[in-house]
Amino acid sequence: QLVESGGGSVQIGGSLRLSCAGSGYTASWYCLGWFRQAPGKEREGVARISTSGATEYADSVKGRFTISRDDTNSMMYLQMNDLKPEDAAMYYCAAHRRPCWRRQPPEYALRGQGTQVTVSS
Fold first, then answer.
1. For residue 78, which of 41, 112, 120 has the smallest C-alpha distance?
2. Which residues is 17 bridged to in the sheet?
3. Cα separation of 92 and 107, whole Å?
4. Number of neighbouring beta carbons within 10 Å of residue 102
5. How many CA atoms lie within 13 A of 78 on its CB side?
6. DSSP the chain
7. First-to-last CA distance in the chain?
8. Going by fewer Cβ within 10 Å, which terminus of the chain is more open, N or C?
9. Which tens digit of pLDDT belongs to each residue from 40-72?
10. In whole angstroms, what is the distance from residue 31 CA to residue 46 CA?
11. What is the C-alpha to C-alpha distance for residues 91 and 4, in angstroms, rounded to an integer?
């Protein structure tokens, strides 16, 4: 089970930190990631982190978002800085047991219920 928290409303240029608490699985065996979906748009992979800590980001968030993991506590985070209106969406955390690096977060087997991020002027 994955449960997101930390979403909310923020002004343009602001920051948010999303958290994802996992349970019922061995986190270190799983690739972890975030994807988002805005109304009327396709799901978009935002960031992912491998079991060894390698990270990858969508071009649209590079340099602004940072993904991290704490396997001891089965937690994952997404630090989002310099938020823009186009970042507004429902954000989901996701996990997939290895081998997993060929998959993108929207394809991961486990996902949470989502947390809403709103960016306003």
1. 112
2. 79
3. 12
4. 8
5. 33
6. -EEEE--EEEETT--EEEEEEE-SS-GGGEEEEEEEE-TTS--EEEEEE-TT--EEE-TTTTTTEEEEEEGGGTEEEEEE-S--GGG-EEEEEEEEESS-TTS-GGG-SEE---EEEEEE-
7. 35
8. C
9. 999 999 999 999 999 999 999 999 999 999 999
10. 14
11. 8
Q: Where do we find the tokens 């954000």?
A: 91
At 89-111, the pLDDT tens digits run 999 999 999 999 999 999 999 99
Higher pLDDT among residues 4 and 26, named by residue: 4
CB-side neighbour CA atoms (13 Å) of 59? 0
The amino acid at residue 52 is S
Of 46, 30, 120, residue with least CA distance to 80: 46
Cis peptide before 99 (omega within 30 of 0): yes
Q: Which residue has the tokens 């994952």?
A: 76
